[in-house]
Amino acid sequence: MTKRNDGFTRRQFLAASGAGVLAAGAWRPGRAAEMATIRQGYQTNMWGMPTYYLLRSGELEKRGIKYEEFAVPSGNLTMQQMVARQVDMGTYAGPSFIIGHARGNLVAIARIEQVGKTVRIMARKELGISKVAQLKGLKVANQTGSSIGNIFVDQIAPAHGLKKGDYQEVRMNVNDMVSAMIAKSVDAMVNVEPYNAIAEADGIATTIMNYWDVDKMPVFMAATPEFVEKHPDTVVAYLKAWLAVADDFKKSPARVSDVVYSFYTSKGYKMSKDTFAKAIGAVDVDPDFPDLKAYMQEQAEVLLKAEKIKAMPDWGKALRPEFMQKARG
After folding, report:
1. N or C: fewer beta carbons within 10 Å in the chain?
2. 190 near 149, Cβ under 8 Å?
């Protein structure tokens, strides 16, 4: 497998996010004054690809919305950009959102997708590992601070008898993990699609477990509180665009797949369309805002116990379903 880095190092992403824009969307003349420009963050793993498709679908332009896009390897980096007020919107799972709310009062305006099937714990094939408990004493690649990383360290590993120190956590971005597996610098990885599908198809790694049975992992579209207060009409129009894009995922999956597949091939990744279809098929795109307070309460309790947040969030302030309700209305 040959690839180039499709994201940024920590230093590079901070420099890029502060200095400029990766790309900009167009808009229709005569409507620009009605809508604010959205600085859109997204991760370059499969969780961010629905957002990538949104930006190329034309649905924002139809609604007079301009955008600037900021791509990083994982959602927790987008969250950090938002806390620093360098980005207005971005997607990430519950744990990262809770931390972002604690640090920067970020708010959730929708649940965009569920991605538990996209996350796997995988080990190098030749090790013959089939259980999480067998990771004891091994080197495990983990994107520290990410939602999948926090869930592994705080929930999954302890549930299988592993405490911190029983395994060596090797910190790295998800897009670097397959190369590390090939180099045998790590024994296992906690990773997300399409990197898992690539590792499996190339005979590099085998699956120990995926997250779906433990956590379906709703992914939120988060926003800064200032943006939603200043531009509520833009937020509603933006969510209407998401509802249209969801129809594409259901009714025109081949078109969606072609757009997203071109993103990865343009970055130098070599994978068959069948492998890619398996990866993107693990993402359940369904923009909505169901009642997730009980789920988020559980996630927050884990983070509170791990001292990653100092207090329980006020869900009335953190979760803002009214914008999606207006978009659907």
Report:
1. C
2. yes
In order of 98, 198, 199, 227, 283, the CA distances from 203 in angstroms are 36, 9, 6, 46, 23
Burial category of 327 from C-beta neighbours within 10 Å (exposed 0-12, middle 13-18, buried 19 and up):
buried
Distance CA 265, CA 3 (A): 9
How many CB atoms sit inside 10 A of residue 217's CB?
24
CATH topology of domain 10-116+216-328: D-Maltodextrin-Binding Protein; domain 2 (3.40.190)
**Mean pLDDT, residues 167-186 taken together:** 96
> What is the rounded CA–CA span in Å between residue 111 and residue 286?
8
**Beta strand segments in 84-202, E:** 89-93, 107-114, 119-124, 139-142, 168-171, 188-192
Per-residue pLDDT, averaged over 6-15, amounts to 40
Residue closest to 7 by CA, chosen among 83, 56, 67, 74: 74
Distance CA 74, CA 120 (A): 15
pLDDT tens, residue by residue, 74-101: 889 999 999 999 999 999 999 999 999 9
Strand partners, 220: 92, 111
User: What is the residue extent of each domain of the chain?
Assistant: 10-116+216-328, 118-210
Instruction: Quote the CA–CA distance of 190 and 121 in Å, as a whole number.
Output: 5
Average pLDDT rounded to a whole number, residues 157-163: 95
pLDDT at 146 over 90: no
- Indicate the average pLDDT of the chain: 89
Query: Phi/psi at 26 (nearest 5 deg)?
Result: -95, 175
**The domains spanning 10-116+216-328 and 118-210 adopt the same CATH topology:** yes
Rounded (5°) CA angle 94-8-220: 20
Nearest CA among 175, 197, 190, 178 for reference residue 6: 175
In single-letter form, the type of residue at position 10 comes to: R
118-210: CATH topology: D-Maltodextrin-Binding Protein; domain 2 (3.40.190)
